[in-house]
């Protein structure tokens, strides 16, 4: 998906190319990415002209990324930041790490003498791999419009992009859209298992559960209606869907469970800050 201006995406230093970094990279490669460097010990399948560095000391000194994307686990931040700090003097850092705050990341860079570092946060999700991601960003007042535009350009290449004005909202965003694909995949898993429990052959249960989740998602994406309206259109009074929803929508069932689950994820994001 390309909402930004035409032409290649700018050269990046992508630090960490696992599930999330790899998903974004897949989308960026599909959209045309200027020669970039990927820092990851475990990737050797990056196509030319892009380069892989196994450790920070292997990074080419003359490489001038337009943006540094930090996509290692939050627990690795303290190890990684000093190692890439020399590039952060000239390029903003875009962190996708859950929980880690702009203040904390900036302080880590400043502690190794990188005074001019600008850190912007983004919370993407794995559908970015197919251009269907949802990314929410936060930039501190020190970030320039050009730096924000650069982030929007890059992230809109892998899906939809929104910005929040309050950094604290990033924890709720993480709980809803960052972690959210896992909730949807769990739904597909559970529907498949329940279909098997009702006597369906495993292959058919898998096929109809997956297609139902993906088809409903595609309908939601294309519709202007609220999700609740689309739900009502499936639900005949006194019919089969109603029988299921009476269980799922009981106040102590999905409404309470989803609220508690998202609160737990947001709480965990806050804990990861330190
Ligand atoms: N997985 C997801 O759906 C999402 C993850 N995130 C964030 O993305 C970040 C990465 O998460 P995942 O991709 O799930 O983890 P992951 O473990 O799949 O990827 C991390 C990558 O970092 C690499 N790495 C570890 N230490 C390194 C080092 N010292 N130098 C260079 N590379 C190193 C690993 O080899 C690995 O490929 C996390 O901070 C997470 O909060 C954000 C949104 C969604
Ligand atoms: O589970 C996690 O911590 C990361 C952040 C959002 C999705 N995965």
Automatic annotation (TrEMBL):
<comment type="similarity">
    <text>Belongs to the pyrroline-5-carboxylate reductase family.</text>
</comment>
<dbReference type="InterPro" id="IPR028939">
    <property type="entry name" value="P5C_Rdtase_cat_N"/>
</dbReference>
<keyword id="KW-0963">Cytoplasm</keyword>
<feature type="domain" description="Pyrroline-5-carboxylate reductase catalytic N-terminal">
    <location>
        <begin position="14"/>
        <end position="99"/>
    </location>
</feature>
<feature type="domain" description="Pyrroline-5-carboxylate reductase dimerisation">
    <location>
        <begin position="167"/>
        <end position="272"/>
    </location>
</feature>
<dbReference type="InterPro" id="IPR000304">
    <property type="entry name" value="Pyrroline-COOH_reductase"/>
</dbReference>
<keyword id="KW-0521">NADP</keyword>
<dbReference type="Pfam" id="PF03807">
    <property type="entry name" value="F420_oxidored"/>
</dbReference>
<dbReference type="GO" id="GO:0004735">
    <property type="term" value="F:pyrroline-5-carboxylate reductase activity"/>
</dbReference>
<feature type="binding site">
    <location>
        <begin position="71"/>
        <end position="74"/>
    </location>
    <ligand>
        <name>NADP(+)</name>
    </ligand>
</feature>
<keyword id="KW-0641">Proline biosynthesis</keyword>
<dbReference type="GO" id="GO:0005737">
    <property type="term" value="C:cytoplasm"/>
</dbReference>
<comment type="pathway">
    <text>Amino-acid biosynthesis; L-proline biosynthesis; L-proline from L-glutamate 5-semialdehyde: step 1/1.</text>
</comment>
<dbReference type="InterPro" id="IPR029036">
    <property type="entry name" value="P5CR_dimer"/>
</dbReference>
<dbReference type="InterPro" id="IPR036291">
    <property type="entry name" value="NAD(P)-bd_dom_sf"/>
</dbReference>
<protein>
    <recommendedName>
        <fullName>Pyrroline-5-carboxylate reductase</fullName>
        <ecNumber>1.5.1.2</ecNumber>
    </recommendedName>
</protein>
<keyword id="KW-0028">Amino-acid biosynthesis</keyword>
<comment type="function">
    <text>Catalyzes the reduction of 1-pyrroline-5-carboxylate (PCA) to L-proline.</text>
</comment>
<dbReference type="InterPro" id="IPR008927">
    <property type="entry name" value="6-PGluconate_DH-like_C_sf"/>
</dbReference>
<dbReference type="GO" id="GO:0055129">
    <property type="term" value="P:L-proline biosynthetic process"/>
</dbReference>
<dbReference type="Pfam" id="PF14748">
    <property type="entry name" value="P5CR_dimer"/>
</dbReference>
<keyword id="KW-0560">Oxidoreductase</keyword>
